[in-house]
């Protein structure tokens, strides 16, 4: 028992001595060195973050696009250095260009800076396309009419409203299976214009049924679903000044007392202080139509398409720019069609071909820059012109398609 007690006592720890004190000092010094190392490491990491800030900004582009349900097609390190400084809200536009086959890495810093943000686009035209007729039973009415094997999808719209772009998107990407089944793959059912003429007014039903454009002599008008392009009057009117096609009015441009050129213009100021509207006339292939003003032409031409009883769709030109695939698919399927297999084919170069369209043509990047902001809205108009426009634009058309009036008559 005593021996066991002695062995137990022999294993008890010794009281602190000089050796334990030295160990505490060593551990204290090591702790201080560890803290110093952590501070140095933190400073290094902070500097590293500063040096890679542009990469982080590019990452924000991708993250923001993903949160906005955008289809991310490029990585941060794929963008040129200058492009990483863009606002994250431009990512959906850059993705759209990338989908269209453009290498965004080759775009200059100036072009990237001019590209609108997605917020600017949606502030003008909303987040979704507007296609009038989709919710009015047009699609079922057309598909159930006559023989689907004889159906066509054709394009219409007044001048400068994107009819060539719409036709190109449909021809390159859509087909009507019921027609191909009977007539073969050489007849996909998509036509670049309606048989009565894409620019022809439709307020005369007898003329629409009888008149046939070139190469459309054997087509029945009721076998064609019309896809009608409309364009924001805020920019459409100025485009008519650049290229009026068959429209004519008294003066194509005029100068005010300050020497500023105004076009388009809707009000003539007489020397006696009175004003009157500037009438226009349009020379169609078989007749000439007179309008009180360019505004009235826009109102009456599209108002007639709204009021017809036969199937048709009205869609915005702007949606062909910012939602090309979605709009093409909806219009195609409404006619009983399907998108072609393979990648969607975008129109990167101008869809306008030939001298009749003038020398200044707009490619895809130009169109996005021009129509993605309000910078070009209501340009070239005087105070009297803007007041006239605000008073006479058809409120029904403006509401249906979400277009905005001039905010102030003197803007």
Automatic annotation (TrEMBL):
Highest taxon listed in the record's lineage: Eukaryota
**Domain (Sulfotransferase) ranges:** 290-401
Q: Which Pfam families does this entry report, sorted A to Z?
A: Sulfotransfer_1 (PF00685)
Q: Which residues cross the membrane?
A: 21-46
One term of GO molecular function: sulfotransferase activity
What does the UniProt keyword field contain?
A: Membrane, Transmembrane, Transmembrane helix
**What SUPFAM superfamilies is this protein classified in?**
P-loop containing nucleoside triphosphate hydrolases
Can you name this protein? Sulfotransferase domain-containing protein
- Organism this protein belongs to: Phaeodactylum tricornutum (strain CCAP 1055/1)
